[in-house]
Amino acid sequence: MARLKLKGNKWLAAPAVFLLLMGCSANETSNQDGKGKEKDAIHIMAPLLSPESPGENSPSLKALEKYTTKQIKVTWVPNSSYNDKFNIVMASGDLPQAIVVTDKSPGFIKSVKSGAFWELSPYLKDYPNLGKADKKVMKNSSINGEIYGIYRARDLIRASIIIRTDWLENVGMEMPKTIDEFYDVLKAFKEKDPDGNGKDDTYGMVVPKWMGLGNGSPWDIMQTWFGAPNRYGIDEKGELIPDFMTEEYMEALRFFKKLYDEGLINKDFAVMDSAKWNDPVVKGKAGVIVDTGSRASQIQSAMEEADPGNKDVIDVIGTVKGPKGTYTFPTSGYAGMIAIPKASVKTEKELKEVLGFLDKMNDQEAQIIANNGIKERNYKLENGTYTSLEKNNKKLLYEHEGLAQFSMGIPEQRYYVEKQESKLFKHREQILKEGEKIAVFNPAESLVSDVYTQKGAQLDNIILDAKTQFIIGDIDEKGFQDAIQLWYKSGGEDLMKELNKRYKETK
Questions:
Q1: Do the beta carbons of residue 313 and residue 300 sit within 8 Å?
Q2: Are 129 and 410 in contact (CB under 8 A)?
Q3: Which InterPro entries does the annotation name (predicted)?
Q4: Using CA atoms, how far apart are residues 164 and 289, in angstroms rounded to an integer?
Q5: Exposure winner among 11, 53, 228, 505, fewest CB in 10 A?
Q6: What is the mean pLDDT of residues 382-398?
Q7: Which helix (H) or strand (E) holds 404?
Q8: Model pLDDT for residues 294-351, shown as the tens digit of each residue
């Protein structure tokens, strides 16, 4: 059994996953008594990354309601459609009292500029947990220095290469140390029958529908291996340039195309639901995922549940060496935030009630309920030793797993985690310690552009579409360069002028 360990790392928070969601109408959870929204109810829009959401009769949800003295009404939206739903809901004006915001998207920035959300800076100091939020992370999550959401804390370094070590052993290889060795592993996992069934039914790495523009997708992580910037780089004149204007980015893009052309990644990556990301590895179809280290633990647990003989078959490394050195992709210290719309929270009194609820969600007891569930139902404690009771019961896990989406982890992680002696756990800890030294940070992280607010979605889609088209072979390098020129003509040139002006001002 693992000994109880309560971490105090302020970068850590609710387990998760790469990424988040939103959407839906507050009408779905209101007017139950015919007199408007229920008294003492909190309506939340949150992402769902699990196959099932916590039902309204979930013991964990009931426990949270009792602890916070609020009825918690959650509208769950699939992660894959969250940003679209967010824009629809903002346009409708029918909003919850708290809404998970996945990132500083153009839709969110537009809403902030129009005054749709409360500016929270003056209020946070009055709350015992929120008042201790990390200042660096708060700045990263701000919009021009103003706070429009409570950040959801995450490790600063999470990027990892997750590999089936049983497959490595079967093909006679070791953990890769360079990009070339990484490629060789993927090729062997496709061509050398790593599962030993005598069939040509495996491939190297599984990638979901998540192209990414500096938000931590597999492509974002891998391009840093080649020395490419994190969203924006600095040219020889000391000015910001987009990552896709660098030769290192194009070198990475050629590598991605090579993986696709040779069948070393899944052909359906452009449409694959991220909720099913783990399945090909767990079911023995693929051997590698590039994502956060926490996903490795999820996969290992799932494989052991399927077959107890699969113990310690998953391991991680942080990165591989590229042509210009060894680099890794960092986070901003947070993964989205929880914002409070003015349309549903109309007065300061109501605002303070919502902030009080969010503050209480960071108490140790609330963090434990959201992340671990109920004692003697989801876990047990014996002589200070924590043991999960969910390892062979997904239904129990789903009772509370989604609740972590509005458990912020401020000022630190306070829920139970199992101290493990496995190589996977130790290697994840090593990645955390060493990653910051080689992390490629985004120099424009805190800058917010009016041009991007107006045209960001259009500009992003130009590059994202071209990136996908290049990888699958619909366009060549000239076609990609044409897309860059379209990006510039569509507002990209004005965007870079504005960002560089603000970058110089901040320097």
A1: yes
A2: yes
A3: Bact_solute-bd_prot1 (IPR050490), SBP (IPR006059)
A4: 9
A5: 505
A6: 90
A7: none
A8: 899 899 999 999 899 999 999 999 999 999 999 999 988 898 999 999 999 999 999 9
pLDDT, one tens digit per residue, over 40-91 is 899 999 999 988 999 999 999 999 999 999 999 999 999 888 988 999 999 9
Q: Which of 349, 307, 405 is nearest to 99 (CA)?
A: 405
The angle that helices 364-372 and 59-68 make with each other, rounded to 10 degrees, is 170
For the chain, the first-to-last Cα distance in angstroms comes to 51
The DSSP line for 424-484 is: HHHHHHHHHHHHGGGB---TTTT---HHHHHHHHHHHHHHHHHHHHHHHTSS-HHHHHHHH
What CATH number does domain 9-154+333-375+390-414 carry, 3.90.550.10, 2.40.50.140, 3.40.190.10, 3.40.50.150? 3.40.190.10
159-326: CATH class = alpha beta
- Written as six digits, the tokens of 358 are 């969010």
Instruction: Locate the domains of the chain by residue range.
Output: 9-154+333-375+390-414, 159-326, 450-506
Residue 302 CA to residue 314 CA, distance in Å, equals 11
What does DSSP say about strands 4-6 and 41-48: parallel, antiparallel, or unpaired?
unpaired
